[in-house]
């Protein structure tokens, strides 16, 4: 009996040492990235003085009303600390959320993330109650219910490996598309622990915002699917925080936001919560909002001229002029173009070469996982529909 107990103690001792060794190895790897992270500098692009203030906020945020770690009050406080004006709350299957309200100086706008048979659907801006809603309802029924309530349907993390959108017909019916999703970035890092997750954890220990930005590693899949669905009718592009409180709400809010141009929504927002929510949802639904990874720089002053701004349309042969704010080093900023356009030699004009849709983004050479740098998206407007040239033009 004693001999058996000794064998067990030895085995347990080896197991404990192995676990302890693994923990120390992980901590050592994380620490390897912590020191250089403390030396990173943000923002990469410095703000330009004298630009009108854009209203800015978070889209797709969860609270303790579903699976978030923070109450609405705690979310509002984190948003205020991060300098945001509004938060679109999207708790899972919360079909009767409270009305819009100001909390700690932050506008909380009710919305919902619906669990369907084909994936998750974010719905916001409803003017009527959602009728007949239930969990895991058919995707097409969910989209129709949102439209019947005069709301907007947005495909949540539609190309995510964990929970993609799988119904083709309703994918075309939804007006919005989460082009960049913080949750998708996190899940991508989970599947690449050595190259993405551990560097992000190490960076987070020194600078939480940098830790979040290390996760920003866009894959081609979401962009390709976005362009495919936009061929028939342009989708509105969203950057989704999909924040649950880990990483912290504030660090995610400091890293990216949806911005509303001042010619569409003047800042500050109205004191009446319902009126303010209507203005925000109008701008988000119309595609006039701009997503920005604000850790890299504020987008105030960004414009894209040469199109019908309200309809987001231009014609074959037109040229879009991209105005980028506050560039200290042009070599660290570039314009990316996909679809029916090509970048001009000046690096900021986009010639529209054919019918369809063109997607234009501004990217920045940002601090990398170690001492180097990586190209990351900075300013992301919704795409532009390119129409035929037309007679007499």
TrEMBL record:
Residues 57-118 form the Polymerase/histidinol phosphatase N-terminal domain. Keywords: Transferase. GO terms for molecular function: 5'-3' DNA exonuclease activity; 5'-3' RNA exonuclease activity; transferase activity. Gene3D superfamilies: Metal-dependent hydrolases (3.20.20.140). InterPro entries: PHP_domain, Pol/His_phosphatase_N, Pol/histidinol_Pase-like. SMART domains: POLIIIAc. The keyword Ribonucleoprotein does not apply. PANTHER family: EXONUCLEASE, POLYMERASE_HISTIDINOL PHOSPHATASE N-TERMINAL DOMAIN-CONTAINING PROTEIN. This is Phosphotransferase domain-containing protein. It comes from Myxococcus stipitatus (strain DSM 14675 / JCM 12634 / Mx s8).
């Amino acid at each position: 009996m004693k001999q058996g107990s000794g064998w067990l103690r030895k085995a347990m001792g080896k197991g404990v040492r192995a676990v302890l060794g693994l923990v120390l190895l992980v901590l050592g790897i994380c620490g390897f990235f912590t020191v250089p992270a403390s030396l990173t500098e943000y923002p990469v692009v410095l703000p330009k003085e004298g630009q009108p203030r854009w209203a800015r906020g978070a889209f797709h945020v969860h609270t303790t009303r579903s699976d978030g770690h923070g109450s609405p009050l705690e979310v509002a406080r984190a948003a205020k600390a991060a300098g945001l004006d509004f938060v679109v709350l999207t708790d899972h299957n919360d079909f009767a959320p409270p009305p819009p309200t100001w909390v700690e100086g932050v506008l909380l706008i009710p919305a919902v993330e619906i669990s369907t048979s084909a994936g998750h659907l974010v719905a916001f801006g409803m003017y009527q109650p959602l009728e007949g809603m239930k969990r895991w309802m058919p995707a097409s029924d969910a989209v129709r219910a949102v439209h019947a309530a005069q709301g907007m349907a947005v495909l949540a993390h539609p190309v995510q490996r964990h929970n993609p959108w799988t119904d083709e017909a309703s994918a075309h019916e939804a007006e919005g598309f989460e082009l960049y999703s913080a949750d998708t970035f996190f899940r991508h890092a989970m599947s690449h622990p050595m190259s993405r997750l551990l560097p992000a954890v190490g960076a987070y220990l020194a600078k939480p915002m940098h830790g979040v930005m290390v996760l920003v590693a866009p894959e081609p899949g979401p962009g390709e699917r976005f362009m495919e669905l936009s061929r028939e009718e342009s989708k509105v592009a969203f950057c989704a925080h999909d924040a649950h409180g880990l990483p912290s709400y504030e660090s995610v809010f400091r890293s990216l936001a949806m911005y509303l141009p001042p010619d569409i929504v003047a800042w500050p927002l109205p004191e009446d919560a319902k009126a303010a929510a209507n203005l925000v949802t109008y701008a988000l639904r119309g595609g006039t909002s701009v997503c920005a990874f604000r850790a890299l720089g504020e987008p105030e002053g960004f414009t894209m001229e040469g199109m019908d701004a309200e309809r987001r349309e231009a014609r074959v042969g037109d040229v879009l002029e991209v105005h980028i704010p506050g560039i200290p080093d042009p070599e660290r900023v570039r314009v990316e173009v996909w679809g029916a356009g090509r970048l001009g030699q000046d690096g900021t004009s986009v010639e529209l070469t054919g019918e369809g849709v063109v997607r234009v983004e501004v990217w920045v050479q940002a601090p990398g996982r170690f001492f180097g740098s990586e190209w990351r998206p900075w300013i992301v407007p919704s795409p532009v529909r390119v129409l035929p040239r037309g007679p007499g033009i």
